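Example (one chain per record):
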Amino acid sequence: MAKTIVELGRPGRRGFRISREPMNVAVDVPEEYLRSEPPRLPEVSEPGVVRHFIELSILNHHVDKNLYPLGSCTMKYNPKMNEDVASMESFTGLHPEQSDADVQGALEVIYTLQKKLSAITGMDEFSLNTAAGAHGELLGMLIAKKYFDDRNERRTKVLVADSAHGTNPASAHMVGFHNKAIPSAANGQVDLSILDRSLDDDTAVLMLTVPNTLGIFESRIGEIIELAHKRGVLCYMDGANLNALLGRVRPGDMGFDIIHINLHKTFSTPHGGGGPGSGPVGVRKELAPYLPVPRVTRDGGMFCLDHDSTDSVGVIHSFYGNFGIYLRALAYIVRHGADGLRRVSGTANLNANYLAQALSETFPIPYGKRCMHEFVASGERFKRYGVRTLDIAKRLLDFGFHAPTIYFPMVFPEALMIEPTETESKETLDEFVAVMKRIAQEAVEDPELLTSAPRNTPVRRLDEVTANRNPVLTAPIDEP
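Predicted structure:
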C-alpha cells in the first residue's frame, strides 16, 4: 500500500469546491491503482464546457423541455423556487448524526409538513420516512399486518381493484398477503356485487386507487368502505392521484384507514431519473402507534426524534427519508395555500377533460369522455394498418413530446394513459392534440413512418428486449 496525498476542496456555499489552500489527507491506495503518469485530460474553455452540457441536456426529453403526459406519473413542472429553498446552506450543511438541538429548523420542517398533509388529507397522523410511493404501500401493508397480528386475527387476503396502480399487489405480496383482483364494472368503477362476495373473514385490506388509473372517481366510495368496514377490513387508498382531489375531498373524510401520497407527484418535487421520491403514509389515530420510528414530535417549544414507540413496525429508512424533497413540497404547499391547492386540482381536471374531448373522436375513450386528472384512450383501431400503441408513442418523440403511459392499465388493449397536469398551457395542449391527430393520419396513410419511429432523435428505435437483457452501461473511451 502506498500513501498518496489527496487534495480535498473545502466546503463552499453549495457543497465542495476546489480550494487554493487544499486540505492534504493521506489515503492508502493499492499500488496497482496508482498512475505512473498524469491522466490525459483535455484542455477545454469555459464556453466549451457549458455548451457541451447544454447540448447533452437537449438530447433527452425532460419536463423543462416540453409536455410529459405520463398518465399516473404526474410529471408536472418543478418550480425553481423550490430548488432554491432546498439548496439553502442552512439545510444542505446539516448532518443526520447531529443532535436534535442542532437541527431544530429541519425537525420543524418535517413536523410542519406532517401536519399540513394531515390537514390536506383528513388523516390523523403522518410519517414521512418512506423513500417512494411503493415504499409507502409497503409500509401501509406492514401496519395492516401488525394491526391484525396484535388483535390475534389471522387474515391473509388483500383485495386489489384491477384499476389500481400496478405496485399495489406487489407491496401486499411482499408482506405475506395473498392478492385477489376485483374487476371493474362497465362504468370503470369497482363492481360492488363482486366486491361484496369477495369480502370475508380472511380479508385484511381493500386497496383502491382514487381516482383510479382510468381517471374515474369511485362515485359509490361511501358504500364500498362501509361494506369493507362491516367485515373488519382496513381500507387503503393509493393516493398517488391526489392532485385530482386537492381542496375538493379528503380521503380521511371518505373513511380510509391508511393512505400513501407521492410528494414527487402531487407536490411538484422532481420525479426523474428514478428518484429521489417520497411516499408519506397517513393513518387514522387507532393505527398511529404502528408508524415507523423515529417520529418527529413536539415537546413544548422543542422538536425531537422519538425512537421509543413500542408498537411501531420499526425502522424502514436510514435516518429520516429524503429531506430535500420535504423542503420542496413544503415550499409548494405554503406558496399555494388552501385556495391555490384547490385551483391546482381544478386546473388538472380541466386540462385532462379538455384533451379527452379533443382527442376522443380520433382515439376512442372506452369509459367515456368525462374524467378527472387523466384518461385512458385506445389506439386499437390502428392495428389494422400494422400500427400499435408503441409506434404512436415512438412517433411522438419526433415532434418533441414525450409519450403517454402505454399498455396500462390492462383493462383494454392498446391503452394510452394521458395526463396533461395543471402546469401546461392551452397552447401546449392544442399543439399536442394537433400532433396526435397528425400521427393518426400518418398511421393510415404511411404507417411505415410510425413503425420505424423515432426518425430524428439522437438514438433511433432500440431493440428493447435485447437492450434489457444485455444493457451496455458504459461507452468506450477513445484514446487521443
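Caption: The chain has three domains: 1-34, 94-335, 338-467.
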